[in-house]
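[[Local backbone shapes]]
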Amino acid sequence: MELSIVWAPPVVLGVLIFKFYWQEVLFQCGLKCPQAPETKEGLDKMYGEWKEYYFIPLCAFALMEEFMFRYFPILCSLILMKLYGPWSGIATVMVAQIVFGISHGNIRNIPFQGVAGIMYTFLFVLFGGLHNFALGICVATTAHLVWNMNCRYRFLEKYIPSLS
């Protein structure tokens, strides 16, 4: 099943709302995303000299991560599924999302970014994936970017009110 671009806004919004509530459930359980910097110095270290233009690195990182953790694992999973069956493809995608979570800090990031990676993979496949690559990667990257921007603004409001 492949959706057209018309369905992108409501589906992306639904995925982002689910991700927001998922993170709230994790927060209520006492888990905190270890990636978020908690001081202005941490923010400066995270964005470096780009901190005034954070939108540029956020776009670049979101697009790069979509290629690394969505497109290439799905491509590999298709090859493995032909060789070893459907479970090998699913395992490949799941391992890629665990690595996505770990790449955002450490193993404690898996419930946050790992689950997000599964949702971005879902969007990539739902909107074309390898058949309509441009649409699939655009929708997944847009959802990823919107979430990164949301995290950035929530961080500023919570920890550094003078910067927001």
About this structure: The longest helix spans residues 55-84. The helical segments are 8-28, 40-47, 55-84, 86-103, 110-126, 133-159.
